[in-house]
Every structure is written in structure tokens, then in C-alpha cells.
Amino acid sequence: MTTATNAHAILLTGAGGGIGRACALALAARGFHVYAGVRTPTPDLDATGITQLTLDVTDSASVAEAAEQVAKYQDGQRLHALINNAGVLVQGPTELVPIPEWHRQFEVNVHGPVRVIQTFLPLLREGGGRIVNISAASARVAFPFLGPIGASKAALESYSESLRVELAPWRIPVSVVQLGAMRTEIFAKSAAAAEAALAQADPRTAGLYDRQLTAFERAAAGQRYAPVDVAVSAITRAVEARKPKAFYVAGSDARLAVLLSRLPARLRDRVFQRALGLSGIALTATATA
What is the reported pLDDT for 128? Predict the structure, then answer.
């Protein structure tokens, strides 16, 4: 781990696992100095070109302290890029997802990037750095039972579009990288949290969704996950491009989501119902004891 001043420095949030860890190592190998924001330091990131920073995107004091450290290490040098990668995935039927879980979804995926951008903008403005916000295919096409994650990523993308115009006078590009399903631990964590929430719900209300959730889980079991390298490649392009694009898409399912988003809403709904095995499920209108 080094902390030398570097004109090609990057702040990466959510670097402790999955896409973040792979991205930090890949960018460091390409000659960037990566300030890797982690909630808990990990030996997996002890590598040349990486400085780990304790950074919780939901805590303003933590973000401010991280910014002070980066400014000190950079000693007047600009920050080349800020990558907002930290995120969580909350899933489940709207009726059964506890409100605190909705708050957590938006606090990490939306308020977190805003908090980090507000704090690190002075370092980016020093020399026309860039911002890369990591989104998901669910922002483009909202999947049933993935309402919380889809809504948070759609909000992040809308914010990114606004920010891109706001920061144009300083020539600070803002890119969104829309990821499909990647082979990381986030899906297992999300499923476990959803099961825990379901166990705490009123069993009569939860029972209304038994057939739908069984069909959804069966369809999800057949989901093909792209290797993390697919995400890393797209993020790297956004970081290295001389003229970054507004949007990058990574993964075949993310590209499919772009196509589905162009379908009329009712047709798109029917496509989802068939693909997820939800067509023809007979449901009761009220819960039974």
C-alpha cells in the first residue's frame, strides 16, 4: 500500500468486495493510484497503487475525513476520477419490504453518492476530473419484486443527468455505467435479507405472495451471471476515455434491458409475466387465516 501523490488518482467507494475490489486491483495495475473506500480494511487490497480509506457513504463525518486524507495525500494534485460504486440491493414485494429497508436502499445508493460528490467536488474541480456512477439494468426496466433497487438506481441516473449539465462549465464529465447481473455476493446477501424480512411479516399477508415468489425464485435460479471482469472493463473505459460517454452498458442482460425499455408498457409487462412464470397464477384477493 502506498500513499504517494499521484496525478492519476481515483477515489473508489465500495471497494471492499465484488466489483469494487476487482476494479481497484485492475485500475491500480493500469497505473492509477486508487484510494479504495472500505468500511473495514481488508488484506485483499494490500497492493501497490492502492491506499485503503475507511469510508462509510452513509456517514457525513466519515466522508469528510476521507476527503481530508485524500487532499493531504494528493498535496495539490487533482483527483482524476470519483467512482461511486458502493451499493446495496433490497428486494421483495412492496407490501412486505419494511420502510427502514427502503430508507437503507436510498441512503446507500442515492444519498451516498450525493454526499461523496458534494464533499469531493473541490478535488475534482482542480483539474477537470470525472465522475462515474455505477447503476444497474433495473434502472432502465423495473423488475417485479426489485422495486427498491430499481427505484434507487433510476433516481441515481436522473441525478447523474442533472449533474452532468451542472458541472459542464468546469468540464467535469459525469458517466453512468449500467450493469447487468454480475457474479458477486450481493445477490446472496439480498436474498437472505429478503427472507428475514418475509419471516417477520404478517404470515397472512405474506401468504398472498407465495405463488408469485415461488415462480420468481424459480426464474431467478436460472439467471446467468456475467463475470466481474465485464463490469470492470466498462468502468475502466469510463475512467480512461478521452471523451467519456454519458452511458456505458455492461452485460448481455443490461443490453436486453435497453431493448425492453423501448417496448410499450403493457407489452413489456406481458413479457415479464411470461419470462418470470407469473402468467396465469390464480391469486386470492384477501389474506386468509
Answer: 81
Q: Which domains does the chain have, with CATH numbers?
A: 9-186+225-261 (3.40.50.720)
What cell numbers appear for 28 in the block? 491500480
Instruction: Report the alpha-carbon distance of residue 147 to residue 188 in Å, rounded.
Output: 17
Q: Which residue from 79, 129, 116, 119 is spatially nearest to 244, judged by alpha carbons?
A: 129
3-state SS string over 139-168? HHCCCCCCHHHHHHHHHHHHHHHHHHHHCH
Lowest mean pLDDT across 96-105, 110-119, 278-287: 278-287
147-166 helix and 112-125 helix, angle to the nearest 10 degrees: 20
Q: Are 128 and 79 in contact (CB under 8 A)?
A: no
Closest CA to 25 of 210, 220, 232, 206: 232
Q: Give me the percent of the chain exceeding a pLDDT of 90.
A: 61
